[in-house]
Amino acid sequence: MEKLIVCVHKRPDALFRLICFPWAGGGTSQLAQWGKLFNDSIEVCCIRFPGRETRLEEPFAKDMTSIVNEVTNVLLKELKEKPFAFFGHSFGSYVSFAVALHLKEKYGLEPVHLFISEGHAPHSEGFRALRSLPVSDIKDEEVIAQLQILGGIPSELQPNEDILKQMVLTLREDFAVLQTFLFEKAEMDIPFSCDITCFHGSDGEVHDVQAWQELTSGDTSFYELPGGHFYLLEPSNQTFLTKHITRCIENAGL
Question: How many domains are there within the chain?
Answer without folding.
Answer: 1
